[in-house]
Amino acid sequence: MDPVGVAAAPEAGPGPAWQSKCPWGAPNTTSISCSLADVMSEQLAKELQLEEENAAFPEVVAVAEGPFITGENTDTSSDLMLAQMLQMEFDREYDAQLRREERKINGDSKVSISFENYRKVHPYDSDSSEDEVDWQDTRHDPYRADKPTTTPRKGFIGKGKDITTKHDEVVCGRKNTARMENFAPEFQVGDGIGMDLKLSNQVFNALKQHAYSEERRSARLHEKKEHSTAEKAVDPKTRLLLYKMVNAGMLETITGCISTGKESVVFHAYGGKLVYYFATEDKVMPPECAIKVFKTTLNEFKNRDKYIKDDYRFKDRFSKLNPRKIIRMWAEKEMHNLTRMQNAGIPCPQVVILKKHILVMSFIGQDQVPAPKLKDVTLSSEDMKKAYYQILNMMQQLYKECNLIHADLSEYNMLWHDRKVWLIDVSQSVEPTHPHGLEFLFRDCRNVSQFFQKGGVVEALNERELFNAVSGLNITADNEVDFQAEIEALEKMNEDHVQNHGKKLSMFPSDGDPPIFDE
């Protein structure tokens, strides 16, 4: 094909300066003569596009340093090169984020972590600056002082006048400073090596002893916190037992604490739908339950072993060397005592289940409100008289049918609910054959007699008359001193009889049966 000529407009003649700068003026164009094949060429189209862009934007500032400007001869038309450049930019941003996380987590800590293994190592990412070096990851830390060199086995270094033995004051001082790093982490020792601190043997031994003492003290505090119940809280093991009861369906929910004492904490809970087996029959959980958690601290139980060590049911299991066992036996003893009282028809909480040191009972009260204690309720003269005769009857039942003595009976351990008295807190209750059983009974009679005499009950017996009425004994002493002397003589006689003529059985066949003696 013959080439086709492309005619251009004639050039404008010389004119005023404002005409050449007028945006609406005719553009100055030069004639380009080319063939049709050149017009259809893609390379020519690119060149024309670049010329137009350069003419339209003559002062284009280069893009700031970045991964896309890698050289003048970079071929950006390749998809592989573009993908590598984008990946390089992503890796740099990822590494920068890791360095920020390291600085945030480490802070001023002496022990730091590093994310060096998670950084993206790009083969052609050679840009690195000196401030990005993590000195924590290097084998040698230029900012850390060198540790003192060890003395060889021969015990000295150097020769002649420059000899230095292992007993040198400076060498020993630096070694003691380095040994401080072996103390517990919570014992702050500072940077003694960096300050070239020299500790004498006396100072180092004192610091070492103090560090060990603090470590043992911290361990004791932690163990006490983990293994003891606080005033209104429970330890993790007790909390786990309560969670298991809820998950098993035995309890619906635990609402909160309703009473605290020296030996236990009582919580209120709603009973679940679980049917439990008790006393050879299946029973439904009560709608409201009282959870008695015996405190696992030994301060109160160490001095109360007299209530349990002479009880024939627990005498063989009692261990003076392991007082922690007393706590579980204390809970077990209250369960057995409540079972005897329940079988005798005495108003008391109904036992549901015993789990280690946790005793679940029926709740005496209504709608999370516990029944008031006898000392906190104001009764009429008729109700006070009725309560007195009811307590007198319960004491006789407790002694004769249950073969028990409350041992801590007072207005603090009696509740008033549904116009009658309920007995609680029988963990310390003992049998009449206990070496101090009659003394405990006389103390209970004194507490009951004094309370109702102050309450205006004219028919209330004094402590000696009440003791004879409950026990069935006929002690005719004119004063309290002689009365107590005869009680002690009876206890001594009973103890000698048991030791000489028979032994008490270690266990009852079932709760509620009287003790069996060998004739």
Automatic annotation (TrEMBL):
<feature type="region of interest" description="Disordered">
    <location>
        <begin position="122"/>
        <end position="160"/>
    </location>
</feature>
<keyword id="KW-0597">Phosphoprotein</keyword>
<comment type="similarity">
    <text>Belongs to the protein kinase superfamily. RIO-type Ser/Thr kinase family.</text>
</comment>
<keyword id="KW-0963">Cytoplasm</keyword>
<dbReference type="GO" id="GO:0042254">
    <property type="term" value="P:ribosome biogenesis"/>
</dbReference>
<dbReference type="InterPro" id="IPR017406">
    <property type="entry name" value="Ser/Thr_kinase_Rio3"/>
</dbReference>
<dbReference type="GO" id="GO:0004674">
    <property type="term" value="F:protein serine/threonine kinase activity"/>
</dbReference>
<feature type="domain" description="RIO kinase">
    <location>
        <begin position="223"/>
        <end position="472"/>
    </location>
</feature>
<keyword id="KW-0067">ATP-binding</keyword>
<dbReference type="GO" id="GO:0005524">
    <property type="term" value="F:ATP binding"/>
</dbReference>
<feature type="region of interest" description="Disordered">
    <location>
        <begin position="1"/>
        <end position="22"/>
    </location>
</feature>
<protein>
    <recommendedName>
        <fullName>Serine/threonine-protein kinase RIO3</fullName>
        <ecNumber>2.7.11.1</ecNumber>
    </recommendedName>
</protein>
<keyword id="KW-0547">Nucleotide-binding</keyword>
<dbReference type="InterPro" id="IPR018934">
    <property type="entry name" value="RIO_dom"/>
</dbReference>
<dbReference type="GO" id="GO:0046872">
    <property type="term" value="F:metal ion binding"/>
</dbReference>
<keyword id="KW-0808">Transferase</keyword>
<keyword id="KW-0460">Magnesium</keyword>
<dbReference type="GO" id="GO:0045087">
    <property type="term" value="P:innate immune response"/>
</dbReference>
<dbReference type="GO" id="GO:0005737">
    <property type="term" value="C:cytoplasm"/>
</dbReference>
<dbReference type="InterPro" id="IPR000687">
    <property type="entry name" value="RIO_kinase"/>
</dbReference>
<keyword id="KW-0399">Innate immunity</keyword>
<keyword id="KW-0051">Antiviral defense</keyword>
<dbReference type="InterPro" id="IPR051272">
    <property type="entry name" value="RIO-type_Ser/Thr_kinase"/>
</dbReference>
<comment type="subunit">
    <text>Interacts with CASP10. Interacts with IRF3; RIOK3 probably mediates the interaction of TBK1 with IRF3. Associated with 40S pre-ribosomal particles.</text>
</comment>
<dbReference type="GO" id="GO:0051607">
    <property type="term" value="P:defense response to virus"/>
</dbReference>
<dbReference type="InterPro" id="IPR018935">
    <property type="entry name" value="RIO_kinase_CS"/>
</dbReference>
<keyword id="KW-0723">Serine/threonine-protein kinase</keyword>
<keyword id="KW-0479">Metal-binding</keyword>
<dbReference type="InterPro" id="IPR011009">
    <property type="entry name" value="Kinase-like_dom_sf"/>
</dbReference>
<keyword id="KW-0690">Ribosome biogenesis</keyword>
<keyword id="KW-0418">Kinase</keyword>
<dbReference type="Pfam" id="PF01163">
    <property type="entry name" value="RIO1"/>
</dbReference>
<keyword id="KW-0391">Immunity</keyword>
<feature type="compositionally biased region" description="Basic and acidic residues">
    <location>
        <begin position="136"/>
        <end position="147"/>
    </location>
</feature>
<feature type="compositionally biased region" description="Low complexity">
    <location>
        <begin position="1"/>
        <end position="17"/>
    </location>
</feature>
